[in-house]
Predict the 3D structure of the following.
Amino acid sequence: MKYFLVAGEASGDLHASNLMKSLKKIDREADFRFFGGDLMQSAGGKMLKHYKDMAYMGFIPVLLHLHTIFSNLDLCKREIEAYSPDRVILVDYPGFNLKIARFVKEKLQIPVCYYISPKIWAWKENRIHVIRKYVDTMLCIFPFESDFYQKHNYQVEYVGNPTVDAIAERAFSTESFEEFTGRNQLANKPIIALLAGSRKQEIKDNIPFMLSAASVFRDYQLVIAGAPGIDPDFYRPFMNKYSAEIVFDATYRLLQQAKAALVTSGTATLETALFRVPQTVCYKTPLKQLAGFLWRHFFKVRYISLVNLIAGKMVVKELFNENFSMKTIREELNNLLNNEQYISVLQFGYKEVIDKLGKPGASDRAAEIIFKNSKYR
């Protein structure tokens, strides 16, 4: 069959590339065209637009690039129509992809599969009406999403979480502490891992507090997980005051060896939990009052971390907005390093999350549904 995929971000490129590999295993005639990235390119097929030319985050960047965004939408529509695929597969990136879903269903009547649901359970819940109307098959990666969609009388498929797959299949899974520190020129001291986000503004807001808070624990070394696409020189001004190191392309290897971690929100919180590393979530917001207002009035969830959202309760402490301070970070980190009962309760919560996520195989299960499912609405 012919598949047209649209992924507009680095994470979408990763998950879409794994899905393509899984589709190839069950469909020998699989042919791909896509908007995506280098990982999808390595999986095969023809790339028509790189996600780096599509990903604009925030109100001002979107406003400044409206012409480019509309041009990309028009190009995507033309390419889908010319290719006439058997399936259109959309990966997250809702601002763009929901418009494509509408076009495909209204103009082309081609089945639309959505892999990795937009986070409408957090905000913009009214998008459910668009999804119900234009998306034939929704494949979800968080177990709580099934309950959310069920409330809206919309049937979805939970296929498992691709992060579970990525960790299960990771390289260096048997690497020892000595091997890791030796290969990265690190000290022979236990590690506190600092995962300060993937965007420059996140890093700028959070890393100074993380470094300062963790620096008082003298028996540990501080190691930053460098974000993909961020130049090492960007981190240097923040590190000058502290004895800290940085590693790139080695986040899983770092977590495998860490004793504790300070983590911003996002997938990193889930990755840290899957490695069973005691963590606290630190997320500094520059405008506390505005952030608090937006959180209370526009967001529909109780937690900011995926760990707590999946558990449905507080497993890891969230130091966010008014709870974010040097004192609270240090107190929490001290518990993560020295309070055995505290750590034990946290690890029990991690086990519940891991059990809910299920076994690896998300990409394979998603591919099988996309390939075999003929019951489109």
Q: What stands out?
A: The domain at 170-357 is CATH 3.40.50.2000 (Rossmann fold). The two ends are 20 Å apart (CA to CA). The chain has a mean pLDDT of 89.
